[in-house]
């Protein structure tokens, strides 16, 4: 079944390759020069076949007896899209063959060279961000929270009367202090009552209505005159 897989990969028959992978074909089986199915597919530039083989467990770093990786074969055959895909899948441009050749050494196309270098750089940065993510708010240490609190204007709020603890009445000085406060309160109450009484006395009473007595004086005079008669 290994030879069938190699032929299907070399020919670009992705459906056959997918069927063989699902039916327990040895995706790592080696042919001449230890070339696997992925090397045959990369040599011919069959992107979909390479994608299927990688999803089936084949390593993107697998190499032949001469040390060529799938990326070596893709660059050597000027299969740009496949080379880009392999770089995104973490295939290294620094991998060397037994003769000391990197994938970039196998191409004279400067456009492909610069494109692959930029892709590897961006892939390296993405990998670094995945392994070293930025700390979130939940990951902050207690020291960071303390710095934020110190920057707040309300870092030292004055204790209110409700927050003050009640002191025990065990000492003589505290008892004397409370007695003095009670006397002051009683004195203040007496003064307030005296002031209220004085204010009531000084308030002017309601004015009495004046009654005319002229009719009474006239009646008395008539009675005296009758007596004299």
From TrEMBL:
One of its GO terms (biological process) is protein K6-linked ubiquitination. Pfam families: Ank, Ank_4. Keywords: ANK repeat, Repeat. Residues 118-229 are annotated as: Disordered. GO terms for molecular function: ubiquitin-protein transferase activity. ANK repeats lie at residues 33-65, 66-98. Residues 174-189 have a biased composition (Polar residues). Residues 219-229 have a biased composition (Acidic residues). Gene3D superfamilies: Ankyrin repeat-containing domain. This is Uncharacterized protein. It comes from Papaver nudicaule (Iceland poppy).
């Amino acid at each position: 079944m290994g030879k069938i897989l190699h032929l299907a990969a070399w020919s670009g028959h992705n459906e056959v390759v997918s069927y063989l992978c699902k039916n327990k074909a040895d995706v790592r089986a080696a042919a001449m020069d230890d070339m696997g199915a992925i090397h045959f597919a990369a040599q011919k530039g069959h992107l979909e076949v390479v994608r299927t083989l990688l999803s089936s467990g084949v390593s993107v770093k697998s190499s032949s007896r001469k040390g060529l990786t799938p990326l070596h074969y893709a660059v050597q055959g000027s299969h740009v899209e496949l080379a880009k895909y392999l770089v995104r899948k973490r295939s290294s441009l620094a991998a060397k063959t037994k003769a000391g050749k990197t994938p970039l050494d196998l191409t004279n196309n400067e456009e492909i060279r610069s494109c692959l270098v930029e892709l590897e750089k961006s892939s390296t940065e993405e990998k670094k961000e995945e392994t070293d993510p930025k700390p979130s708010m939940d990951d902050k240490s207690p020291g960071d929270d303390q710095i934020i609190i110190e920057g707040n204007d309300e870092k030292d709020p004055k204790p209110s009367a409700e927050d003050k603890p009640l002191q025990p009445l065990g000492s003589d000085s505290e008892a004397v202090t409370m007695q003095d406060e009670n006397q002051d309160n009683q004195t203040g109450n007496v003064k307030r009552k005296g002031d209220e009484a004085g204010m009531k006395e000084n308030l002017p009473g309601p004015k009495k209505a004046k009654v005319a007595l002229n009719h009474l004086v006239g009646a008395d005079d008539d009675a005296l005159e009758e007596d004299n008669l």
